[in-house]
Amino acid sequence: MKFFKKTIVLFITGIMCLTTGFAQENANKNTNSDYNQFGETWKNENKEAIFEVSESPYEKPNWGRYTKKDDVIYAIVNEWPKDGKLVIDRNMKVRTAFLDYGDKKLKTKLIDGNLTIFLPEENPNTMATVVKIQLTPTEDWANLERYSAANAALEAPAKNEKRVVFIGNSITDNWTRDHGVFFEENPTFVNRGISGQTSAQMLLRFRPDVIELQPKVVVISAGTNDIAGNRGYISLDRIAGNIFSMVELAKANNIKVILASVLPASSYSWSPSIEPADKIIELNTLLKAYAKKNKIIYLDYYTPMVNDDKGLIKELGRDTVHPNVEGYLIMEPMVKAAISKALK
Q1: φ, ψ for residue 147 (rounded to 5)?
Q2: Closest CA to 256 of 266, 265, 264, 247
Q3: I need a surface site. Which of 8, 148, 263, 288 has the fewest CB within 10 A?
């Protein structure tokens, strides 16, 4: 009996797999066959618009169809508008529209609520013509989305809660991953680090990721990715200026500031042409002087973690930049002491 049941189950599973495979094969054939009416010559001339593309998120128009590849929409126009006005989906953020994949630029304008591309009166191809639409990039440059859901879910601090937000780069971001027990044991500490970020990106997200969380204290750790040139060259004075702007925003919102030094680093694996050691010393000198002048706490991670070559002590790092567990165990009592001092 058990054998019989097992046989039935295997039979049904096989039928389902065959059906799924057949349906998928048919779907692929149907997608490819959509263009068979135009012939092989047309398909070869328009490979860019029909191969290795995806269906667009926009509603299918009555004049043809859209395909999509990265930040480009291809409008495949079967029925050429007699007045030369091609109405496209208004939700598109059009930067530029072209005929012939970039040779001829087309005017785009909003007319009576319709987003319209102005085409030549005569259709260049009697079968179907492709209009290439370059969209405006929608890059989340500062990665504001990274913590948007977590910020929304985080309740306002309780009456006597002394919330502390850590804002920084991968050194802060990886803290939760590599030694998360620190945050588990200190539930009022909130990690808002993002790997790879520069001071300018942190400054841009300082309001949603720090101010709006209503902390009593913020720990700011920034600068090493600027020196590495993650977003291009930036002077040390400008790096320091971005960090000072975060401090000023915090103070304007009655948030106590702990300004952390940049950790020592002798090299960057992702930016090997940069020699960061002396630049880090110079930036830390600027940060320390600013902290002293403005009577804020300067957290010197650098001194106990630097080796004789101005780099990170090998036993404290996963590489030449990022602390390992032993490194975080050096940093944790230091930052907790600084937080206690700030709260007093």
Answers
A1: -115, 10
A2: 247
A3: 8
The string of pLDDT tens digits covering residues 279-303 is 999 999 999 999 999 999 999 999 9
Closest to 335 in 3D by CA, of 175, 114, 199: 175
- SS3 state of residue 306: strand
Give the tens place of pLDDT for each residue, 103-159. Answer: 789 999 999 999 999 999 888 888 899 999 999 877 889 999 999 999 999 999 999
Beta bridge partners of 277: none
Nearest Cα to Cα of residue 74 among 101, 95, 37: 101
Owner of token pair 């030449």 = 320
- What are the DSSP E strand ranges found in the chain? 54-55, 64-69, 72-77, 85-88, 94-99, 104-106, 108-111, 114-118, 129-135, 164-168, 189-193, 217-220, 256-260, 297-299
CB 22 within 8 A of CB 105: no
pTM: 0.71
* Sheet strands side by side (includes 64-69): 54-55, 64-69, 72-77, 129-135, 94-99, 104-106
